[in-house]
Amino acid sequence: MKLSLVLLWAASALTSPLRRSVAKLSSVTRNGTSLLVDGKVWKMVGPNVYWLGLDENVTPPAGEPFYAPTKASYPTKERITEAMATVQALGGTMIRGHTLGISTGNPLSVMPKPGVVNERAFDPIDWAVYQAGFDLNQRRDEKNPLVQQFYTNATIVATFKDYIKTIITHRNQYNNLTFAEDPTIFAYETGNELLGPVWGDMNSPADWVQDIAKYVKSLAPQKLVVDGTYGINKTHLGIDEVDIFSDHMYPVNTAKLQADIKLVEAAGRPFFIGEYDWVGGNTANLQSMFKIIEESPAVAGDTFWSQFGHNAPDCKTYVDHSDGLALQYGNPKNTANQNSRIQLIRKHFVAMSQGKEIPPDEPLPAVPCPAPTSPTFR
Ligand SMILES: *[C@@H]1O[C@H](CO)[C@@H](O)[C@H](O)[C@H]1NC(C)=O
Ligand SMILES: *[C@@H]1O[C@H](CO)[C@@H](O)[C@H](O)[C@H]1NC(C)=O
Ligand SMILES: *[C@@H]1O[C@H](CO)[C@@H](O)[C@H](O)[C@H]1NC(C)=O
Ligand SMILES: *[C@@H]1O[C@H](CO)[C@@H](O)[C@H](O)[C@H]1NC(C)=O
């Protein structure tokens, strides 16, 4: 099994099928409300691993790149490969990877300033895309009208497109493929939780969404485009260049889920739950959500928020994140409740990705640390 990636842009994220084999990777395509790989229905289930390109949870050893004001550092290769191995153990098929696509505005990012490209930032990104391609058997509460300039100001839109072009035309140092060519990356998301000046307003203008989706497809005709608006904005459903619509569930809300599916299915497109709280609420609610997803052909899949792992190559300590939603697979300090939810997630992923029922109490497969890595091109 290999993994695919969704890359997200700017304000917000790269999605990749997780795939790990030297065998040639098939592209993910769309047929109406279904996603297909090699002519068969393919489901997009996995975690959000937002830190694969840039992280702010670990202070690196002295001398390593570190930008103190935002605590930015590059993740180690070992942390990245462990993330892939964990997704495989969970039965997932892909990763939603924000900082593979979103990387601007600090000295460690891909584009520290408009027009300035920092090649060093591509090392963890290239590594993550490359490793995913192998088979190893802040909430915004301001009401600032300037926000809308992100979509309407011609200079800002041009800068954003220049940034998109920098990412998509980049050639991976580990496999010599561009991010347009590499089938490991199956979708680009226009942003993460895009909105206007007011929280929840879904005000990313339809003409902007179409313009960006067209631009992505002009550079990468084979890639799918996910509308990164936070919620289903009905004015977007008619945009032909959008392949997948999505929403985030904080908290898990099955009524909202069903309403979203209905809207998107009627528009002839697959629906994807890009983020959800796997920790809060009662377990039965999480189970109900999984059941709806499994039984709805027009749901392409879901990615939980969010996965962390060891501070690899240190295989004794785990990296934590401040939001209380870090899923640390195999951590002996996990509570029974956390572990039973991880079991549920795995059962759900396997049902989605392999159409197979696993016993709910089947032990979680071990993930070795350090995790195996793929052979490299250089
Ligand atoms: C594509 O969708 C059409 C209409 O739903 C269906 O008839 C056809 O079999 C699908 N093709 C594949 C390859 O799944
Ligand atoms: C558009 O954005 C640019 C760059 O930030 C800025 O210089 C310009 O004043 C903005 N235009 C308007 C009309 O606000
Ligand atoms: C990488 O691909 C480019 C474009 O196809 C080609 O010109 C170049 O020779 C390749 N580099 C290596 C080291 O294979
Ligand atoms: C949806 O997007 C349109 C612009 O395309 C915007 O006018 C509207 O406010 C957005 N929100 C909703 C809830 O429709």
Automatic annotation (TrEMBL):
Identify a single GO molecular function assigned to this protein: mannan endo-1,4-beta-mannosidase activity
The main location class comes to: secreted
Segments for region (Disordered): 355-378
Q: Which InterPro entries match?
A: GH (IPR017853), Glyco_hydro_5 (IPR001547), MAN-like (IPR045053)
According to the UniProt record, one GO cellular component term is: extracellular region
Could you tell me the keywords of this UniProt record?
Glycosidase, Hydrolase, Secreted, Signal
Q: Where is the Glycoside hydrolase family domain?
A: 139-235
What this protein catalyses is: Random hydrolysis of (1->4)-beta-D-mannosidic linkages in mannans, galactomannans and glucomannans
Name of one Pfam family that matches:
GH5_mannosidase
Name the top EC class: hydrolase
Bias class Pro residues marks the residues at 361-378
What is the name attached to this protein's record? Answer: mannan endo-1,4-beta-mannosidase
- Say which species the protein is native to: Daldinia eschscholtzii
